């Protein structure tokens, strides 16, 4: 009978010890289900606003077993590595990392991150908090001196930093039940950096996306050439066409005015004109002196006869046949109407 009572007492104490597990702190439903809700007289003011990144910050003496105020435990170790095991002091977006926690004695632990990463092992405490881990799964058999887990950093954290916070407690001795805490802040490198592209390209497209925006920069920048089309404005060259105005050269055609050379022809034409010769028939008879009638004829004689035109010294008239038609009009009067009437009259008979 005594043996049965002792076993029952040990079982109760073991359950009471389990109340201090991480789940006891972050899962209020768990407390209510086990009779530790406010309606049961328990003071919940010691609990801060519970979120995925919060952790205990006060003593929990109203619950059994009691935990004293948290303290920073320098004996807690945190080591970060890449998937291949190489140690890192900064994180890369999209890459798989590992974190290993170590304690001087066996403990359970609550690990939270801010901003949240995504833990892939072991499974997160709740599906709605991928950046929180219940290390040891809130069971007495889960205590250990070290825990290892893997995680990835979201692409949105590129260029920022992540804070890892751990809260741990042991079951024995009683002094181990005080919250022991530690924290580490790791920078997150740019996803496009050499160290990150060498281990993961999961977030590289997001970092390279601005490159297409840079594509329009060369061609549109070169397109100001149309703006440089003021060359049409430089078309004052038509204005520089004063050359037509410089056509006074026709005015310089005083050569027609120089046609007084025909006027000089009368001086030579009488000398050269053989027109008096055609009246030799009445050589011995004084009556048929028609010569007086032909004297007024010299004025038409200056008209350029074929012989006189050839002897004319002025090359200007020879080169310009335009005036010659004016002189030719006077020829018919001289050659056709002057000599025939007097030369063909029969002489009068005498006696």
From TrEMBL:
It comes from the Eukaryota. Residues 213-259, 273-305 have a biased composition (Pro residues). This is Uncharacterized protein. Keywords: Signal. Residues 334-351 have a biased composition (Basic residues). It comes from Chlamydomonas incerta. The keyword Protein biosynthesis does not apply. Residues 1-20 form the signal peptide. Residues 208-351 are annotated as: Disordered. Residues 260-272, 306-321 have a biased composition (Low complexity). The keyword Signal applies.
């Amino acid at each position: 009978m005594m043996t049965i009572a002792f076993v029952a007492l040990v079982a109760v104490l073991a359950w009471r010890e389990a109340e201090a597990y991480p789940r006891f702190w972050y899962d209020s439903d768990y407390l209510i289900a086990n009779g530790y809700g406010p309606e049961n007289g328990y003071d919940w003011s010691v609990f801060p606003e519970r979120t995925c990144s919060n952790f205990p910050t006060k003593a929990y003496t109203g619950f059994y077993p009691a935990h004293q105020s948290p303290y920073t435990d320098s004996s807690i170790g945190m080591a970060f590595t890449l998937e291949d095991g190489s140690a890192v002091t900064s994180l890369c977006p999209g890459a798989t990392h590992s974190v290993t926690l170590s304690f001087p004695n066996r403990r359970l632990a609550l690990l939270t991150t801010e901003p949240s990463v995504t833990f892939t092992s072991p499974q997160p405490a709740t599906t709605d908090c991928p950046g929180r881990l219940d290390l040891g799964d809130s069971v007495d058999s889960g205590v250990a001196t070290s825990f290892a887990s893997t995680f990835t950093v979201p692409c949105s954290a590129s260029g920022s930093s992540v804070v890892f916070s751990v809260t741990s407690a042991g079951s024995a001795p009683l002094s181990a039940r005080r919250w022991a805490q530690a924290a580490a802040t790791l920078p997150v490198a740019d996803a496009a950096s050499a160290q990150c592209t060498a281990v993961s390209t999961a977030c590289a497209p997001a970092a390279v996306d601005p490159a297409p925006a840079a594509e329009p920069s060369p061609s549109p920048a070169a397109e100001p050439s149309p703006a440089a089309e003021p060359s049409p404005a430089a078309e004052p060259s038509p204005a520089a066409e004063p050359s037509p105005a410089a056509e006074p050269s026709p005015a310089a055609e005083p050569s027609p005015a120089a046609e007084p050379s025909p006027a000089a022809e009368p001086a030579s034409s009488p000398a050269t004109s053989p027109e008096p010769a055609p009246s030799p028939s009445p050589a011995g008879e004084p009556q048929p002196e028609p010569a007086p009638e032909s004297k007024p004829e010299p004025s038409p004689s200056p008209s350029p006869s074929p012989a006189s035109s050839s002897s004319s010294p002025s090359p200007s008239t020879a080169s310009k046949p335009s005036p010659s038609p004016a002189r030719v009009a006077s020829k018919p009067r001289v050659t056709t109407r002057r000599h025939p009437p007097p030369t063909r009259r029969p002489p009068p008979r005498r006696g």
